[in-house]
Write a structure and sequence with these properties.
It is a single chain. This protein is mainly α. The chain has one domain: MetI-like fold, CATH 1.10.3720. The protein contains twelve helices and no strands. Helix 3 crosses helix 12. The radius of gyration is 24 Å and the shape is elongated. The N and C termini lie close together (12 Å).
């Protein structure tokens, strides 16, 4: 992926008066200049959304994600067999009636993959969303206020980014437990500093533009300027970060489940299924591992297709 903070040549570059020229403008004139910039950017955002929806990769990605969302929502209602306690012969290879085969105790792998989408799509998006929200809040404060606040928070962010992700996650879960909200909180904590750094850079590029100067001259508070004036104009990088982080969150959640954190047996969580069955590959029983792993891969690829489509349009490529 290319840098989500790159400038969008389609729409986001708008000529503005030089800083020294603002001194000679009245507050009304500065306000009109700011309104022009905002109007042009709103039009650009509408055009970008139209272009995104026409991208084949975006359409394919959304379709795959929707398929898994349907599986997560309806789960056992659409599964061909019961995912937990309807047993047949163990380790049946894929065949009619059991297209994904059965696991070691005779549970239908297809049904467990369908129902297992619920755990992943409940934890990963919530963790990513919470991480992005916290990262946006932190990045807005760092980028807009600057000074010693930015200096101190930036050093803290850099310290967190230097830590190994999986090790920190495992230590946190070992300390706090492996409940669903613990995993969500850990994922959010891992993503917050990454998002904060991206948002900080975007806010620094915006804070000296005319519409911000106009808001300051009107006497607006810092909170109003950050979240009502600047935030709508840095939504591009934030949306890219959200889509990218959801893909990473699926990997993190699956990895933690594989390592024993998160949902426990008999949960059909995809990572848990891979963890329970990967030793069977050496005996030629591949389907109990390959199909859950393929489900993880398909969801990550679909999210990345969406993220790449959004990023490509915003960067004009």
């Amino acid at each position: 992926m290319s840098d989500p903070n790159a400038t969008n040549p389609h729409s986001e570059v708008v000529s503005t008066p030089a800083a020294d020229e603002l001194v000679s403008l009245t507050p009304a004139e500065i306000g009109m200049s700011g309104a022009v910039i905002l109007g042009e950017r709103q039009q650009a955002r509408r055009e970008n959304w139209r272009l995104i929806r026409r991208r084949p990769a975006f359409i394919v990605g959304v379709f795959i994600v929707l398929v898994w969302v349907v599986c997560a929502v309806f789960g056992q209602s659409i599964a061909p067999h019961h995912a937990f306690d309807e047993y047949t012969t163990g380790h049946l290879s894929p065949r009619a009636g059991y297209p994904f085969g059965t696991d070691e105790i005779g549970r239908d792998v297809l049904s467990r993959v369908i129902v297992g989408a619920r755990d992943v799509l409940k934890v990963a998006p919530l963790g990513a969303l919470l991480g992005v929200l916290l990262g946006v809040l932190l990045g807005m404060v760092m980028g807009y206020l600057g000074g010693w606040i930015d200096l101190v928070l930036s050093r803290i962010v850099e310290a967190f980014l230097a830590l190994p992700v999986v090790l920190v996650a495992l230590l946190a879960i070992a300390t706090l437990g492996s409940g669903t909200w613990v995993v969500i909180s850990v994922v959010a904590a891992l993503f917050t500093p990454i998002v904060a750094r991206t948002v900080r850079a975007a806010v620094i590029a915006e804070r000296d533009l005319d519409y911000v100067t106009s808001a300051k001259l009107r006497g607006e508070s810092s909170g109003f300027i950050m979240f009502r004036e600047i935030l709508p104009n840095v939504m591009g990088p934030i949306i890219v970060e959200l889509t990218v982080r959801i893909g990473y969150a699926v990997f993190v959640v699956a990895t933690l489940a594989f390592l024993g954190a998160g949902p426990q047996a008999p949960s059909p969580d995809w990572g848990r299924q891979v963890s329970d069955a990967y030793n069977s590959i050496s005996a030629g029983i591949w389907w109990t591992t390959v199909f859950p792993a393929a489900a993880i891969a398909s969801l990550v690829i679909a999210v990345n297709l969406i993220a790449d489509s959004v990023q490509s349009v915003l960067e004009g490529s």
